[in-house]
Fold:
Amino acid sequence: MSEKIFVVDKEKCISCGQCVKDCIAYALELDENSKPRLTDNGQNRCIKCQHCMAVCPVGAISIFDKKPENSEPVWSQNPEAVLNLIKSRRSIRHYKKENIEQETMQKLKDMLNFTPTGCNFHKLHFAFVEDRAVMDKIREYVNNKLIKLLSSNVVSKIKTKFSHYKDALINGEDVIFRGAPHMVVVSAPINAPCVNIDPIIALSYFELYANSLGLGTCWCGFAHICLQFMPELAKQLKIPEGYKIAYVMLFGKPDIKYTRTTQPETFEFSTIDDFSPEKLSVANKIKHFFVNNIR
Ligand SMILES: Cc1cc2nc3c(=O)[nH]c(=O)nc-3n(C[C@H](O)[C@H](O)[C@H](O)COP(=O)(O)O)c2cc1C
Structure:
């Protein structure tokens, strides 16, 4: 069955033009009766963001077979509750030795489909370890391999990163995965317009939503480093061909409870209250290039 690209219920449409105004791709226009339609090359321009369907005040627009009656209404949020969630989120390094419920796992996955991606390039991949027993196998493999690498004479970057954790690893401490029953590894196609950013946004959303469900999370740079040095792990995690692993997040039921928020140091903020650019010296241009383009 072919999908219907852009369908307007002309009985419902009130010709407000909001769909045309909000189309970032310039794929829509109003016809002679002030009803929206695709422009000549609108189908090619459309980035499938569905703003036209979402903005229509009377539910007159369907796009790519997405019908307005299948969307959810927009609620107003409690900003204090959202802020408290942000402030009270902690990196969790103590987890209950049990799986989370399958229903909760599914809620987390469903939420991920809503995270924004640059140019609406909607192709992220999430590898979920859903069973603690599988996580235990990964834990054991990685920890043993790390001990081996740290004990060998081979010079490698991983040694400089983890050398001072050698004793803890030998003592059986789970330095990398913090005893978490689950993890999610996010990757993006190498050719995605925002290959490095999209996955991080997705995990940021994941972290907050997981916390709202009473779960604990921890960004895991250590696991990310291990994945870079152990390509066999990436294969086991079914990372698709042509995808770049972006980051790892641990999660599960927390076995620790924080009573209050922390009081972080403030970042640096500047207020830009004028704009009068002067020509930069060549030296400054080169400096700017290196600071902003070389990681
Ligand atoms: C990008 C990133 C990578 C991190 N990697 C690790 C990690 O590998 N292991 C770990 O225990 N914590 C890791 N953390 C957690 C930080 O140590 C933690 O965010 C910081 O100490 C502040 O504590 P809080 O998250 O509880 O506010 C990471 C956090 C971020 C944002």
Summary: The chain has a mean pLDDT of 95. The longest strand covers residues 243-252. The radius of gyration is 24 Å. Residues 90-91, 93, 178, 218-222, 262 surround flavin mononucleotide (CB under 6 Å).
